[in-house]
Amino acid sequence: MAEMKQKAVEDLGRAAASVEIRHLTDLLERANIAYHQNDAPEISDEEYDLAKRRLIQIEALFPKLKKTTSPTEKVGAIPREGFSKVSHAVRMLSLGNAFDPEDVTDFDKRIRSFLGKGQKDELIYTAEPKIDGLSLSLRYENSILVQAATRGDGGVGENVTKNALTIKDIPRNLTGAPEILEVRGEVYMSHADFSALNQRQRESNAKPFANPRNAAAGSLRQLDPNITAARPLKFFAYAWGEVSAPLAATQWEAIQRLKELGFQVNPLTKRCKTPADLLAQYAQIETNRADLGYDIDGVVYKVDDLDLQTRLGFRSTTPRWAIAHKFTAETAWTHLEAIEIQVGRTGALSPVARLQPVTVGGVVVSNATLHNEDYIKGFDSKGAQIRDGKDIRVGDLVQVYRAGDVIPKIKDVDLSKRPDNAEPYPFPTTCPKCNSDALREKGDAVHRCTGGMICPAQAIEKLKHFVSRGAFDIDGLGAKQVEAFYQKGWIKTPVDIFLLQENHEPALRALDGWGDKSATNLFQAIENKRSISLSRLIFALGLRHVGAGSAGLLARNYGSWIKFQRAISNAKIGEGPLWNTLISIDGVGEVMATSLVTTFQQTAESTAINHLVSMLNIKEIAAPAVTSPIADKVVVFTGKLEKTTRAEAKARAEALGAKVSGSVSKNTDILIAGPGAGSKAKKAAELGIKTLDEDGWLSLIKNL
After folding, report:
1. Is 300 helix (H, G, I), strand (E, B) or coil?
2. Is 495 helix (H, G, I), strand (E, B) or coil?
3. Measured between alpha carbons, how far is 631 from 15 in angstroms, rounded to an integer?
4. How many CB atoms lie within 10 A of CB 306?
5. Which residue of 8, 10, 416, 467 sits 20 to 30 Å from the alpha carbon of 563, by its own alpha carbon?
């Protein structure tokens, strides 16, 4: 099976891989914001998992196409507006996924290989249900709960302490706990409590929640803790962050310690010795899933020995010592009533299926993602048939599936039930919002509106992006305000934001829901954002293929707006020193570089950007936080390492800020060569690259 999957990926050409990477990146970045920041997911868990898995496979096969800003290197999303920020002392990471028994066996093999253990060596795991809720970190100091925070983007979360104090499962005080203890777990809502809550919502003419996960997440993230207190939330503890003293020597014993301290822990957690034991526990939990009384979406496996967990360490976004084995999708049949087109910030036309409402796995769904024109016709991005080549038509009886809690995907079409008058869906060639041509470029999977800022859908989405948290982040000017001001004609471009007070102050102060104080606060917030970092400005421009991480890379490499603008504006696509410098930046490929150069060399775009920049004070980006002798150095390992495994050495280098590469080039700073080093050592010598043996390497990083 693994060979078949790998063969499917290898059939991609480099150009096709680049196109699919762009598509998957856009899909995953939108999904992260919708799920983690807005509590309003747009795609199912399974679709997200499959898309991320596909992206990982392609990046592994075409490593030069992988960007440092890839969704495979990120966790969650930045905290949303309304809450103060909390920096996690220990990052809250996500988990890698397993989808079939083979993945579980591979997980065990990777662990053994990393640790240098053979198949006969004992290796114990724990298996526990994966609760479908909202991750929460509780910080206790001297046994008193002092802070509660959501995961956020893994590094910074939302301060929800007052809300967490209303949850009965969360102790306010502990007895016999370490001086500092961060307990981590999942906030969730039982099926019975969810049903009762929705009944109260309907009785008060309020909108019912879609599912328990959304209800739990929305309840915990209320600005008014009294609302949270009225919601029946529960909490399972399963992990920890910062601790001043170890809880125990093993995962199992640590969980028992948390139970003794007064936390609820899942009774289905079990120790297992082999992959077969793990799979047996998975099957047992899946069999009992419908009777648990709360939602789970898989089983989590963890290495039990905490010393081994420490040795195994972390990848950029996931621990090596744990994995989530996800459950398969749930399906149902319903009728497709309509296909609607949504227009995004980059002009992409995204078709959405409007379904006759149907219950899928206990959740009523009425929408499904249709991706693009090819998907509707029955083909994937490479032209291969999906659904046996059956197209999707309005009026069809379709099978939808979901593995999580949101918009499902269409799995099949029942042609025997197709209405006689059902016609193939004609994908629009004009934008439904502005009537501009909607073109599909060669190699692109989607149609895009050519209207640019004259397209109201694109203009509004670009403006929403401009004021979003990772961009200008203007207090009091969120998505709703932007849309309202756009409809009034007050804000059509980013420049209009900085002219809002000058052009519309009296009208805004007289607007319903505003007033002198709120208007004054908004004008001051806008004025405060005239000073902005280079990285935030680049991200705020909403350039295609340029995310927050890419903007940071560009800012760090060019240092100032003048240098950045001159370089991009004068570069020639595919040739010359300016182009070569641009694409040599780690994480910047030809697709992103082409998008940048094309944008800055269009007269209208360039003029608009210059007008905006003239109103701003642009600061240089801050220096990187990691400081060590190898920070930002390109490091290559070759030959056999005898005092540690290759995987462990690479992980250590990355943790100290180095960039680990698999090949030697003129950009390589250090080569670590063990016995058996061959062509890499020879090339390093020819290029005059510093070369260390394993002892030299360990000496260099000693005490770091």
Report:
1. strand
2. helix
3. 33
4. 19
5. 467
Nearest to 35 by CA among 135, 182, 156: 135
In contact, 183 and 240? CB cutoff 8 Å: yes
CA atoms of 76 and 37, how far apart (whole Å):
8
**Distance between CA 99 and CA 298 in Å, rounded?**
9
Q: What is the pLDDT of residues 503-544, one digit of tens each?
A: 999 999 988 888 889 999 999 999 999 999 998 999 999 888
663 closest CA partner among 671, 655, 654, 653: 671
pLDDT tens, position by position, 583-626: 877 568 888 899 899 889 888 778 889 999 999 999 875 444 55
**Phi, psi of 389, deg, nearest 5:** 80, 10
CA-nearest of 384, 363, 366 to 375 is 384
229: nearest Cα among 167, 169, 148: 167
Beta bridge partners of 635: 660, 670
Query: Number of helices (H) and strands (E), helices first, in the chain?
Result: 26, 24
Sheet holding 96-98, edge to edge: 96-98, 322-326, 296-303, 125-131, 270-272
Q: Residue 56 is encoded by which pair of tokens?
A: 């990982």
**CA dist 405 → 213, 220, 309 (Å):** 8, 18, 31
| Cβ 339 vs Cβ 352: under 8 Å | yes
Q: What pLDDT, on a 0 to 100 scale, did the predictor assign at position 445?
A: 86
Compute CA distances 96 → 39, 50, 53, 519, whole Å: 21, 12, 9, 46
Q: Where are the beta strands (DSSP E) in 377-455?
A: 397-402, 409-413, 438-439, 448-449
343 within 8 A of 388, measured Cβ to Cβ: no
Kind plus residue range of the DSSP H or E element containing 518: helix 516-528
With a threshold of 0.70, does the pTM exceed it?
no
CA distance 404 to 46: 7
Which candidate, 684, 634, 681, 677, places its Cα nearest to that of 654? Answer: 634
- DSSP-assigned states of every residue in 237-263: EEEEEEESS-S-SBHHHHHHHHHHTT-
The residue count for the chain: 704
Which 3-state string (H, E, C) describes 347-363?
A: CEEEEEEEEEEEEECCE
Closest CA to 32 of 82, 79, 98: 79
Active-site residue set: 130
Domains of the chain by start residue, with CATH: 2-73 (1.10.287.610), 85-326 (3.30.470.30), 330-417 (2.40.50.140), 452-529 (1.10.150.20), 533-619 (1.10.150.20), 634-700 (3.40.50.10190)
In this structure, are residues 548 and 470 in contact, taking their beta carbons and an 8 Å threshold? Answer: yes
Task: Check: CB of residue 416 under 8 Å from CB of residue 382.
Answer: no
**144-150: strand order across its sheet:** 144-150, 134-141, 180-188, 234-243
Q: What is the helix (H) or strand (E) element at residue 673, kind and residue range?
A: strand 670-673
The two structure tokens encoding residue 261? 């301290």
90 vs 241: CA distance, rounded Å: 5
User: Does the pLDDT of residue 51 top 60, yes or no?
Assistant: yes
User: Quick one: which of 470, 513, 515, 473 has its CA closest to 497?
Assistant: 473
pLDDT for 7 beyond 50 = no
Helix or strand holding residue 185 (H, E)? strand 180-188
